[in-house]
Amino acid sequence: MALFDEIIEQWFCENGRSLPWRETKDPYRIWISEIILQQTRVNQGYQYYLRFIERFPDVKTLASGSEEEVLHCWQGLGYYSRARNLHQAARDIVEMTGGVFPDSYEKVRALKGVGDYTAAAICSFAYDMPWAVVDGNVYRVLARVFGISTPIDSTKGRKEFVALANELLDVHHPALYNQAIMDFGALVCTPQSPRCGNCPLSGMCVAFETGDVNKLPVKQHKTKQVVRYFNYIYVRANGHTFLNKRRGNDVWRNLYELPLIETDRELSAEEVYAHPALREWIGEGVSPVFTQLLRGVKHVLSHQIIYANFYLMELPASVRLMPGFLLVPHERIQDYPVSRLVASFFEKSDLTFG
Ligand code: SF4
Fold first, then answer.
1. Which of 150, 151, 201, 259 could anchor a disulfide with 220, C-beta 3.0 to 4.6 Å?
2. What is the DSSP string of 156-182?
3. What's the CATH architecture for 4-215?
4. What is the pLDDT of residues 207-224, one digit of tens each?
5. pTM of the model
6. CB of residue 208 inside a 6 A radius of ligand 1
7. If you measure from the C-alpha of residue 187 to the centroid of ligand 1, how many angstroms do you get, rounded to a whole number?
8. pLDDT band at residue 353 under the 50/70/90 scheme
């Protein structure tokens, strides 16, 4: 009987996806693709990758770009710390080597935002070094084929899976093997409805034989999701609006957004219009006109569910200042990187400025 690595490599040669970052050995491009694909599906990441590489074709160009440009290129992908880390790592590389990408596992692993998985992927894909990748796809395939029920989010589980992955690795073709097992997990041994009936590994798959396919892999902790309520105030004042740069250790740090009132429960429109934060922003004696624009927009992040309402607040032309906010002419809004939630609000609301 053929071995595990032979079966998946053969499957990959016949069925693997042709993707631009697989056609190159350039570690920079592979790094960019791996960071984009960390929390993003291939279909969505594909266009982002092409745009990013076009704008920042090498380490030096990325290092010399501004953080705002980098975030702008990333807009809509989510998990913006990935973009900030990429940018910082590019600057570190330029500072250390003048722009030459590191060529050892330890140095690649030391880059900001690069973990064990990404370092293994870069080193195997770019340099054919014998490091096995262990991502969600690999955990799933190995758990099912070898019938392993150790939780994948436990220290014991991680060690067990990494050891097995390295044991199975085809050290003569690490790039091919790693790409094969990842694609196999993404296309055949999928989380829901895996294609067991048409699977070349079914003859050796423990979970298939025992009927445990849907029970594996095991996770011990379910992700807790926090619910948040955002009330965004889209201000219209004489052809301008106001934006704010998010700070602190929270989602969307350094991205821009509309003035925001966050509350611990859903507020009615009247409660928002009477909220003290509004008075602090616009001062006494100003009488805004409010309109509710969008209500109950649900935005799901990995650990949070945000329910957002959007309001229009029209101010007299004389109001040119809201302390702490940036006054932005309508035609320049697109210059500011914003979250997908705010970007989709701009797309949905066909607003004109008076
Ligand atoms: S038989 Fe099913 S569970 Fe087993 S490896 Fe194939 S697709 Fe995955």
1. 151
2. HHHHHHHHHHHHH--TTSHHHHHHHHH
3. Orthogonal Bundle (1.10)
4. 999 999 999 999 987 777
5. 0.74
6. yes
7. 11
8. very low
Per-position DSSP letters for 51-96, written without gaps between them:
HHHHH--SHHHHHHS-HHHHHHHHTTS--THHHHHHHHHHHHHHHH
Condensed to tens digits (0 to 9), the pLDDT of residues 64-112 reads: 999 999 999 998 888 888 999 999 999 999 999 999 999 999 999 999 9
Burial class (CB in 10 A: 0-12, 13-18, 19+), 232: buried
Which of 331, 297, 9 lies closest to 170 in space, CA to CA? 9
Distance 195 CA to ligand 1 centre (A): 7
Q: Is residue 207 within 6 Å of ligand 1 at its C-beta?
A: yes
Q: Is the CB of residue 217 below 6 angstroms from any atom belonging to ligand 1?
A: no
Tell me how crowded residue 289 is: count the other CB atoms within 10 A of its CB. Answer: 10
354 Cα–ligand 1 center, Å: 60
Q: Kindly report the number of other CB atoms within 10 A of residue 187's CB atom.
A: 16
Tell which CATH architecture fits domain 226-348: Alpha-Beta Complex (3.90)
